User: Which sequence fits this backbone?
């Protein structure tokens, strides 16, 4: 079965004047218009394509890569507001509609919003929604502490930054754990800090405990190499200065330079650290 709103690997069935007809193992066909047909295609070869509905509500395939796929989240720009809702640029010819009923606040042309893409079961259309919370659930969360995860920054809260974890869960990066500039729509790697009994998930932006030392130490080495072998930072530097230059907490910085010092890769001077 061809999955709308997702990538499909389909077989080339035949070539026509309007494009290639592709099919799956169940006999379903979809058109790949001429403008997306690769020059070196052959009958029976397999192509990876994205399938959605065109402006006439017909299934169609494209070799373009959309900015969002079904059951995922992205930070998209509104290109037009019409009578039924906001149309967002998701990298394809036909824009993604976010109906007014699916907007937490009335969307404005030219602005960006984090949205979820889903298949509306009533209209059978791919639809966008900024009502993020109704698509996320922390029930059944099974990731262990320090697991590496993909994050999308959703919004700023009084406690820190709310993030979407692995397109499934909602988490929070506390302000005290943020050591680099963040913005809504940022995609980054995070680490599970804890899953609380109330199903709330705390996330860190750096590996925890011993796992943190190696990547942090390597990052400092890279900074040293990029700055001629010297950085004007040491264990007496202020937390603000360390955060400004390295996006690290002072505690993480001291652990990392301690490791580098014991491995005889740096010397610690009164005015900074220097490569050996």
Assistant:
């Amino acid at each position: 079965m061809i999955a709308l709103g997702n990538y499909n690997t389909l077989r080339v069935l035949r070539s026509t004047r309007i494009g290639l007809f592709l099919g799956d193992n169940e006999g379903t066909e979809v058109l790949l218009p001429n403008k997306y047909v690769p020059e070196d295609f052959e009958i029976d070869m397999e192509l990876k394509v994205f399938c959605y509905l065109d402006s006439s509500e017909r299934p169609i395939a494209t070799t373009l890569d959309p900015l969002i796929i079904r059951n995922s989240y992205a930070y998209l720009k509104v290109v037009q507001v019409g009578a039924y809702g906001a149309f967002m640029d998701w990298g394809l010819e036909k824009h993604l509609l976010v109906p007014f009923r699916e907007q937490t606040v009335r969307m404005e042309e030219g602005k960006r919003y984090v949205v979820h893409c889903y298949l509306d079961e009533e209209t059978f259309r791919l639809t966008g929604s900024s009502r993020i919370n109704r698509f996320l659930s922390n029930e059944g969360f099974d990731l262990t502490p320090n697991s590496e995860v993909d994050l999308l920054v959703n919004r700023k809260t009084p406690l820190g930054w709310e993030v979407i974890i692995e397109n499934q869960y909602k988490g929070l990066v506390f302000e005290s754990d943020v050591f680099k500039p963040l913005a809504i729509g940022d995609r980054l790697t995070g680490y599970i800090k804890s899953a609380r009994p109330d199903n709330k998930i705390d996330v860190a932006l750096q590996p925890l405990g011993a796992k943190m030392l190696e990547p942090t130490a390597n990052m400092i080495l890279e900074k040293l190499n990029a700055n001629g072998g010297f950085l004007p930072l040491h264990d007496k530097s202020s937390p603000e200065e360390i955060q400004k230059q390295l996006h690290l907490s002072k505690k993480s910085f001291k652990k990392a330079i301690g490791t580098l010092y014991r491995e005889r890769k740096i010397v610690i001077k009164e005015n900074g650290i220097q490569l050996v």
